[in-house]
Structure formats: C-alpha cells, structure tokens
Amino acid sequence: MVRARTGEHPAAVHRLLVLLLLACLAACAAATPAPPSASRSASALPTASANAERPLPTLVPPEGSAWFGMNLDWANDSVAAASERLGATPSVWVQFAAFPLDPEQRANLDAFVEQVAAVHGIALLTLEPHGGLDTVTPEAAADLASVLNAYWTNSGVPTIVRFAHEMNGSWYPWAQQPEAYVAAFRTVAEAVHDGAPASAMAWAPNEGSGYPFTGGQFASDDPVLDTNGDGTISNADDPYSPYWPGDDAVDWAGMSLYHWGLAYPWGENELPADGTFRALLTGGNTGAHEGQVEIPDFYATSAEGHAKPMGVFETAALYNPAADGPSEAELKSAWWAQVTDGSIRTDFPRLAMLNWFEWRKDEPEVGGVIDWRLSADAELARSLLPQAPDGWLRFDGLEVAD
Q: What topology is assigned to 65-394 in CATH?
C-alpha cells in the first residue's frame, strides 16, 4: 500500500472539499502500517503468508529418519552459502542468544529467522542465561514465548528451544546448580508450551565422560550432585539425573557429542577409535578420560526411558590445521562414518536429529584454532552426505502445504 501524504491546498478550493479531503487522508494514514525500522520486532518480519490459523507443525521427523542440521558462524556464514557448499539444504539451523532477550538479541534473531524461513527450516534456539539462573523470570519467559509464536505465525518458522545447554559442565554461569536449573527450565517450558504452540523444549547436558569436570570456573560442591551418597562428588556420580526437569517440561532429549581426540589433553589430529560415537551415546568407556568409570546409558535412560526423541545437537571431529597426523579428509570422513553408520540408525531409532558444528574457531582447551567444519572442503562434504543410510537424514526442512 502507498503511504498517504498530506499536501498544500490552494485558497480557491472550497472549504468543504478541503475538509473532506483531509478526513479521507487521515483515515488512510491511520489504516496504513508504519514501515519497518532497521531493528524489527518479530511481529514485523516480512512474510507473504502471515496466517494466525497456520496448522501447527509436528516437531519430530517421520519415524525412521533424522533431521540434519548445522550450527553456523553467523557473522561469517549464511544459510544460502552453507547449502551451496553442501549441495543440499539442512533442515535445522542452530543459533545462540543471550537470555533474557534484549533488543540487540531480538534483531539478531529476526535476521536469523528470515534466513531460516526462506528454506522452510526449523530453528534450534540455544538460550544462554549469562546473568545467572535468577534472571530467568516468568516475565522473561512469557516475552520469549510471544517472540517465538510470532516467528511461526508470521514466517512459518517453528522453534526448538535448547535452554541453558551443558548445564552439567563447569564452564557456564548456569552450571552445576541442579535445583535452580530445573526450576528455570520449567519456567521457560511452561511459557513456551502455553504461548508458543509451534515450539518445543530441548534438554541438552554435555556428554558425561569427564564428569564432574573439576577445575572449571563454575564447578560446584552442591550435595544434590552426590547421587551415590558416598560424601564426595566424583566421576562415580550420575552426570545427568540431577538436572532432569520432568517429562512434562521436556520434548527432546539430547547431548553435545564431539570427537576431541583419543586422550586428554586435546589438540592432536587423531582418528577416532572404532565405536566411539556409539560409546558416547550409551555411556561406554572411550578411553579419552583417564580413570573414567562407567556412566549411565544416556540413550536408554533419557530417550528410551522417557520416550523422547533424541538429538545430537552438536557434533564434529577435531581437526587442528597446525598439527601433524591424519588429514582433514581422513578425520572428518572417519567421524562421519561412525555418526551415520547403518547400525546407528537401526539400534537407536529415537535418534532424530544430527547437527554439525560448522565453525572454525579458537579453542582454549587446545590453545589454537580448530576447524570443525564439515563443508570447508565442499567436495569432501558432498562426497560424505550420500554415505548416510538411504532416507535417514532429512534435508529441506518442513513439508510445506500448497
């Protein structure tokens, strides 16, 4: 619609005509929306098919399949560029945002959602309460739900909310505070389930090898973490159960599962031992952490045990461009082969999402830059994707009705 403008009227024009024209112009201006500002709210995102009655999505892929997704370095990459390198369009796109949301975070999310909407994708939003769990209020959660609901209503983008991930680690301000974490997760889940029906909640601890991750800035001596009651918090304690928010609050269960190498300290280019990915899913000892005792079978207890779809919300294989050893192609091909082995599909039927960590970044644990990307070598990536079991990994996002 063209925006109405008022103008000058010659004195000879009849006064009644002037009044009628001004009244008409005022009515038109009132009915015309203001143009979007540079920092748009979720409700102002452009769309050709905004529809409050849009049918709700099923936020689980068809049985026997898994959505493939990517976690991009959004400052230097895009949905279009990553899809071009892969020769296919991932279904899920991962973004991080500080929580509670502020205007800057909303603007970043708006730009992210525009890209996801263009490919009918699914947004996996990782919320990080860097100010601590006491900043997670019902008001902040309700505001989030309103934003997410607008993303679906206006742009057709559903959201899976991964709240305060890796909470069992020792490296985030929300870490190792099980009671406060459970309360905060439930606050967000209640708001999202009530106010954003096209969204789901994901519970995502870090894989438990190395627990309780002593030495981190936020390591805790909370007695709730002493699950075996022996008076100490050690690798003999359960790294998952103290943080479980409840079946009614959780829609997806999942973890971050990386190949960092064969043994700590990290940084060397090393091929993964046979069966490493399977061992990480089930709590088997990979040998990467000296003295690690057997940990609970995450898949059996958290996915099967709670009848939830499981996501590997982050995965990749460490490749250090400055180190000797196996080549990038050898490392990433080996890890891809384990992650997508046919036996994984058949033995873990609830595994319904795999997201690759598509970053080249400095890693403090290594003291250097690690290239985690799958598609840095586009030819390599395009050769790997077809190796997954036929029909298991799903691309191109949600099916869109005509």
A: TIM Barrel (3.20.20)
User: Which whole-number Å values give the CA distances from 130 to 97, 99, 165, 276, 286, in the listed order?
Assistant: 10, 7, 12, 32, 32
State the residue for tokens 């805790």.
220
Domain segments of the chain: what residues?
A: 65-394
The alpha carbons of the chain give a radius of gyration, in whole angstroms, of 24
Query: Can you give the pLDDT at residue 294?
Result: 78
Q: pLDDT at position 22, please? A: 35
Question: Which of the residues in the chain have pLDDT under 70?
Answer: 1-52, 287-293, 400-402
| Cis, peptide link before residue 100, omega less than 30° from 0 | yes
Q: How many CA atoms lie within 13 A of 45 on its CB side?
A: 30
pTM: 0.85
At 28 the pLDDT is 37
C-alpha distances in Å from residue 126, one per residue of 163, 307, 334, 372? 6, 22, 28, 19
